[in-house]
Amino acid sequence: MIENAEQAIAWIHSLTRPGLRVEHDTQKRILALLESLGHPEKKLPPVIHVTGTNGKGSVSRFSQAILTASGFKTGLYISPFIIKFNERIEIDGQYISDSDLTVYTQRIADYYTNQTEFEVITAIALLYFSESHLDALVIEVGIGGLWDSTNVIDATVAVITSVGMDHMDILGDTLAKIAYQKVGIVKKTTKALLYGRLPSEAKEVVEKQAQDLQVPYGEIDSKLKVSRGYYQRYNAALAWAVVKIYLHNILPNERFLEIIDFWTTDKLIKFINHVSWPARMEIISKNPLIIVDGAHNPQGLAILTDSLLREYGDREQLIVFGHLEKKKISVRNFDNLPFAKVFPVNWESYRQTAESDHYEEWHKQLDELLEKIDNEKQMIVVTGSLYFVSQARIYLKNKLQKK
């Protein structure tokens, strides 16, 4: 019997068994679970379904925030979490409560057979959302799209933020193969597909699939001049386009035009600048200047370094980089920053050995940087694996509060 949120989260995490090979090209496990629950995935409001190698979290968050501010009770499902497990499932910016998490996890556990951790979390979210009387729902894909656990839903609007080389062991080793997996969230029932700037190899695959399914599609290559990191200008513009297409498909024309008229460009930019989104070019301190960003693959690091060069090119960047070897990234990814000093952390070694000294090593590294930093000429950047960034973010915030 699951009696509290701590027990619920512990049970969920226990479902990941290192070394156990899991089939990635099937949804039979989650579909069996959802059938036992009465198919909550068929009782949802119109859905915005977001995938992409990078940017999907930001586009999802911005879309939800705009819809909520427009008067729609809006659910949001994201992964992974940065601060607290509950943030993966929320409504109008409010995380699922500990009591609801406990209740819904127990309901899932009653029917559990052999599902993976992500399948269980997705089932919890879908059941919770199906009973929350929502007006709108934004769902972020976990990995890929075609075989992702979230793809049991039928999206009203499908979104592909970007396509790059990541999760190749699951999605394929070319951009075309990865694009094919991501465009798998588009179905005949989808009303529209929107995508950001894509490499030509990926764009061809995406557009062909949309054409074959006779789904209207379009590329969004514009920017909204938000002040949240240069690359967020593209994510913000894509989110706004997605919301407009979504509302156009679900609302009477008069109500749709009323909302569009309300959101002037200046008002929209001001609003998005205040949307909270941890570990996405997030400034956690201004003096000293400290930024945390979960850029964990080559494309993400390219975007991050471009933003740092554009916005903080006159500073020396002290970069603490917690990397995973399988992501094919290294200190060389920061070569275009002329004033950068990179301090790598082998996060994979820490994750594999709980007693590893690496944990203390990166603590000491951050402590030393905080003690010696020149507030006028230098800045600290923490990046790499989202799990590493999450841990470092907590440590830094606690450290700064004690000063």
UniProtKB/TrEMBL annotation:
SUPFAM superfamilies: MurD-like peptide ligases, catalytic domain, MurD-like peptide ligases, peptide-binding domain. Residues 280-328 form the Mur ligase C-terminal domain. The keyword Cell membrane does not apply. Keywords: ATP-binding, Ligase, Magnesium, Metal-binding, Nucleotide-binding. It comes from the Bacteria. GO terms for molecular function: ATP binding; dihydrofolate synthase activity; metal ion binding; tetrahydrofolylpolyglutamate synthase activity. Its EC number is 6.3.2.17. It catalyses: (6S)-5,6,7,8-tetrahydrofolyl-(gamma-L-Glu)(n) + L-glutamate + ATP = (6S)-5,6,7,8-tetrahydrofolyl-(gamma-L-Glu)(n+1) + ADP + phosphate + H(+). It is an enzyme of class 6 (ligase). It holds the Pfam family Mur_ligase_M. The keyword Ligase applies. One of its GO terms (cellular component) is cytoplasm. Residues 50-191 form the Mur ligase central domain. Belongs to the folylpolyglutamate synthase family. PANTHER family: DIHYDROFOLATE SYNTHETASE-RELATED (PTHR11136:SF0), FOLYLPOLYGLUTAMATE SYNTHASE-RELATED (PTHR11136). This is tetrahydrofolate synthase. It comes from Oenococcus kitaharae DSM 17330.
